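User: Run a structure prediction on this.
Assistant: Running it now.
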Amino acid sequence: MSGKENTEQTAAAKKNLRRDVLAARQALDEVTIQQKSAVICRRLMALPAWEKARTLMAYVDFRGEVATALLISQALAGGRTVAAPVTVISEKKLIPVVLERYPEDLREGAWGIREPDPERGRHLAPEELDLVIVPGVAYDLKGNRLGYGGGFYDRFLPRTRPDTVFVAPAYELQIREHCYPGPHDCPVDMIVTEERVIFTGARRGLA
């Protein structure tokens, strides 16, 4: 098989996986989403990595993703610095912008996702983050992540410190056998589902 054929097959496999997992996730009703999200968030907040983190970035959930409201509100209540990502489509990058109030500081941004106003909120450098709560479509047990296809997090995560921990909240239905990682894809250190915590060991066993 030629390199081109292999690349095309991998792209098709990723497209099919993304379609299948998104369909399964979108089939969840709102009550189930909130119930599973509460379990996932409480399990995540019991992790040593969460306890240690003083500055973190968390995605704001969209279209059936694991809800992050509990994580964000609890972190703010605990006096931590919490940023949410602002997506700059033209530059294909994410900017961590600090939330002072949640959800009052959010507005509709790229693709309808709620995000802070980058003109009003304080920007953080990626190196300031102790913990990043990462969204995604699917994951495998090695921590490989299938995102939405834009590559925003794969560009952003390598800009953090070597000891910054990447944690992915996910429903168990998002855990798949293989996520077809590419050379520039950035894996996560932990995946937290409603059933378990997966320590992937993908990045020197950071936990």
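The chain has one domain: 3-199.
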